Amino acid sequence: xxxxxxxxxxxxxxxxxxxxxxxxxxxxxxxxxxxxxxxxxxxxxxxxxxxxxxxxxxxxxxxxxxxxxxxxxxxxxxxxxxxxxxxxxxxxxxxxxxxxxxxxxxxxxxxxxxxxxxxxxxxxxxxxxxxxxxxxxxxxxxxxxxxxxxxxxxxxxxxxxxxxxxxxxxxxxxxxxxxxxxxxxxxxxxxxxxxxxxxxxxxxxxxxxxxxxxxxxxxxxxxxxxxxxxxxxxxxxxxxxxxxxxxxxxxxxxxxxxxxxxxxxxxxxxxxxxxxxxxxxxxxxxxxxxxxxxxxxxxxxxxxxxxxxxxxxxxxxxxxxxxxxxxxxxxxxxxxxxxxxxxxxxxxxxxxxxxxxxxxxxxxxxxxxxxxxxxxx
Length: 377
Fold this sequence. Notes:
By secondary structure, the chain is α+β, with helices and mostly antiparallel strands. The protein is about 35% helix and about 30% strand. The protein has one domain: Clam (outer membrane lipoprotein receptor (LolB), chain A), CATH 2.50.20.20. An eleven-stranded antiparallel beta sheet has the order 6-5-4-3-2-1-11-10-9-8-7, with helices on both faces. The relative contact order is 0.19.
């Protein structure tokens, strides 16, 4: 679970940052376009093509990614389970890991765990419970090498973003069915056009299976522990259960850059799994992604003091163990209890930081502001 979490985050970050708002070729867009049978759907398809054609340059910005699972009917897991991830990044060129300051938060049953992952000046750092740890040079280089391989086919012309997704086996536009333009909205101060569509669950699972097979190409620790694919029969079973997940995209009206994206599905729970999860009959799963402050300068700084990485392993193990125990026991919390997973027993700046992270409730923008407390702010 723990290795898979880091691998999933690394894969998503690499695809999003390297993809920079694009990812499908015009060939795959044509496949999706064959489903457009009305003028409205054709117009939406054309806008999707402009958004995903791979010719958009994003060199910096702030990414937000959140995954939320809301159970229904369970007597043990009553609250949502959430994973939030995001922060500022700045690309440093082909073959280089972007400079970034990402915060990761996991919450379940009132228990909250959070950590900060910083990449700057060719070095990596992890901060948890207010204490920073320097990532071993070998681990950082391995991650940089994998990322460089993913993005190696070029930047600036747009070809790099398309290649990044294709190397991972992802064809975004081929997944969308019956797209429609449904309105306008302002997202983080930017005028956008909203497109709604359904997702082809079968095609999505095929892409995900290919993605698992590509995980090792990033050099991410723990990727080898993941399955290399999903069997065809399992794909069919999951696709039948998912039905047609809902897809919403907010694309910049002027620049055709992705500003916000959501995917949601209701997953039925049956058989022994329902019993094991306290009678849960379904779960609503929502994935959200957003870009803000696109191509604006970002300030990313290294921690002023660090401890050995071996100490971090023990700290983070305690964080996840606390969350896991909360899930197993099904005992909720007031938020203050959950804060103990990030070091609420510590005093001063550390305790304020922990309280701030807990109060943010998975809002990445708010969590990013909490880091100022570590400097006594």
